[in-house]
Amino acid sequence: SRSRNIRFTFVIQNFSQLNKVYGKDVAETIKGTCGNFVYIMSTELAALEEISKLLGDKKPEKPKKDEPAPPIRPLFTVSDLQALKQNEVIFNRFRSMPFKTKLTPNWQIDWGKKYEDMGYTTRPKREIKVFDLVDALSKRDIKKAHQILYGMQRQNEPIIKTLGLIAGHFRRLFFSKINKNKTNAELATQLGCKEYAISKAKQQAELFTASQLKNIENLILETDYNIKSGNMAQENGLYYLIFSIVNM
Question: Quick one: average pLDDT of 219-236?
Answer without folding.
Answer: 88
